[in-house]
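G.,

No rush on this.
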Amino acid sequence: MSTHHLSEQEIIRREKLAALQQLGIDAYPAPAYPVNITSTEIRSNYLGEDNKADFADVCLAGRLMGIRDMGKACFAVLQDHEGKIQIYVKRDDVCPGDDKSLYDQVWKTLDIGDIIGVKGYVFTTKTGETSVHVKELTLLSKSLKPLPVVKEKEGETFDAVTDPEFRYRQRYADLIINPHVKETFLKRSKLINSIKDFLNSRGAIEVDTPVLQSIPGGAAARPFTTHHNALDIPMYLRIANELYLKRLIVGGFDWVYEFSRNFRNEGMDRTHNPEFTVLEFYTAYKDYLWMMDTTEQLLEKAAIDVNGTTETEVDGKTISFKAPFKRVTMYDAIKEHTGYDISDMDEAGIREVCKKLGLAVESSMGKGKLIDEIFGEKCEHHYIQPTFIIDYPIEMSPLTKKHRSKPGLVERFELMVNGKEIANAYTELNDPIDQRARFEEQVTLMERGDDEAMFIDHDFLRALEYGMPPTAGIGFGIDRICMLLTNQPSIQDVLLFPMMKPESI
């Protein structure tokens, strides 16, 4: 094998691998290993002489993260999936026969990063540290690439690897050398399970809808385009699952939900990744007022399940998910933060307001996009505590039912937290004639150059013509909620494998 691209350490490790093979030692043996305990269970439950017998035959496995050689013995640090524990390896124990050379040839040449299995008993060292005295040691996987060195002393970490380019691109290494990172993803799992428990306990049904779609519907966004060879047609990666979930409401389901992996061919920043997770659910015979109440209950429960409290620390601020949340209309929010009342303005008037506010807007933008630009640039960042922005202009919401008492508006809200939208909800439009007209308005915007305007989904219109009951629907940005509950500054910190530019290897 060519070694011209390998570092000196990588070459040395490969030489050690070859030496092991010559000794007849398999550096990658069959996967089964009889682990019966974890590092956390030992540290939490071992009481010394009081229950020493319960820990007389332990077997655990993990990665070597530190080795201190003392000649005929060594102390080492073993890291399993729950944490770290010290192990003590004595030459005479792991090489019980007359030939002690194997210790020098194998066990003393182990490297940081190697995965081993150990059997032995738990004891307390003279310095008071709970450790495992190893009676049998097995190499389970030889590490050929050195880990970045992270120094630790007396509970403090030095030279921690914080470079985001390395951490996001090599998440597997990040999780090894920064084990606290795992906590973020354990909390993410708790968040999703909490929401599922909330929905399931209330009778909602989890479903799956297509990722590959012939029409990218349900949101105003630029899709990823691909091609289906067998059918010889263009296809799109899903930008939203809304229209398929509504089809199921037409079909007779009263409450459906899906954790949907969505894809939008747009920019990347600390709150946007082209691939992201959304929870959407739709409930028959409900409206956006019911949905606000339900959203408060869901997020209050999720915060408690993830962190044990309704409060979370984000960017040095304390945010409370304790219900109820504040409610502000879209026009009132714009008037409060810009001084302009745009409620009775036409597109030309709103475009002039944008100009006065110093906003760069394009000719392709219609009235809805202009209002969205004003709110996004001048208002959104003011809403730190959970706030429902309600009653949107009809031009901003082509899939939303007209407001029952406010002409020109629709029954919609977005939930803002820490200056960003984390949920978007409607009383759903179920009038097929009105919906067709709204789609046709989107086509006009597309013809003006708006590449985020919606396509006409004729099959969805056909479904509405069969009749959809009054329905409330919502979409939650799971990644953003996770950022809030784990105090992470970037969406890349809550995605195990965020989008990165291709790497030259």
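When you get to it, here's the other one too:
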Amino acid sequence: MNEIRLPQEAGAPAGAVFDRDRSLRELLEDLPMSEIGEAIEWLCGPYVLVDAAGGHHSGRGTIAGGHAEVPVRWQAEPIGFLRAPAAVEPAALRAAGDLLEAIIASAARYAMARDLHSESVAADYEALQQKHAQLVASEARYRDLAAGLERRVAEQVKALDNGYRQVYRAEKLASVGRLAAGVAHEINNPIGFVHSNLATAREYVEKFQRLGEALRAGAQGGVAEARWRELDLDYVLGDFSALIEESIAGADRIAAIVGDLRRAANIDRSEEALADVNELIQSAAALASNGTAAHPRIQLQLGSVSRIHCRPAQISELVRNLLVNSIAATSAGGEITVRTEMADSCLVLEVADTGEGIAPDTLPRVFDPFFTTRAVGQGTGLGLTVCRDIVEAHKGTIDLASEPGRGTTVTVRIPPAC
């Protein structure tokens, strides 16, 4: 069977379709004319096959003298003629013509089927080409949209990240502001009585100066003693010692607050160090309660825990954030308990309060950035998010359990090699 070709490759006129008039040459060009010629010659002897215009197509032998002919028809129209010697039997010539017409009819059906298939394939190919072009164009549009969307997503992520950092910095500044206000209030008390004591001490010194002036003026023993009683120097000497002791206690109190600040900020430690977590908790608890007139009682139940390799500044921030959240959720008559222990070689830190608790439907969202249960303007919703990030940075875990009206417990586990 011959290879199926597209219409323009089959030698057909441009725009040809399968159902069209065909010439004798088109119908017979793909047939085995040598075998067909032998059959025709057997029936009628030498012959010549010409088309409707008289053009020679094929033949066998030589026709001498006159000739006889019969038309060769296709679809009732003569498309050529079969010529044989004049002496041939008319029936034999007609039989050869009938044979040729039968062959041509079969060839025509084959050609029509072939062209129909070729045209169908060509149409399908053209449709596929169009769909391919559409797909290519669609893919190009998709790539452009994807690239544009990726750029927009990157811009939005960058904007969100910048916004998150700004809000985080604002929260840090607000936390520092609250801490500074508390520390200022706490320092103001000892500073106040130290200042008052110093003013009193100055008055006492002035009294001794007046006694000294009297003595230098040559006052006798009786006059000097009278002057002593007048200035009430016996009381001054007794009170002066108490004044000095009270001032020293105030200075010690200020030094303790500054020490708590230094430990909380870890300004004298490297980024990572072996740290005593109990010490960090004590400093954070002292600072968290400063400056609050009425706050829940903070109870420390610190067990014997190993020093861990960590980022002390971040651990201090973790404890402060947990305490700030508990203080905000617990009334003045409540209690906050901070516990530490070692379990399975891990440091376990637990902060439990007797506050208002968290509703069950809210609990899954407490670590989401910017989520807060406080009133508008009273929190950014980053405290627990920062806590989670700090714990994850130390390869630990943080869990929160709460019951409305009965309080909240946050449990942090930090492995030794974080």
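Residues 1-15 have pLDDT under 50 and may be disordered. DSSP finds eight helices and eleven strands in the chain.

Enjoy the weekend,
O.
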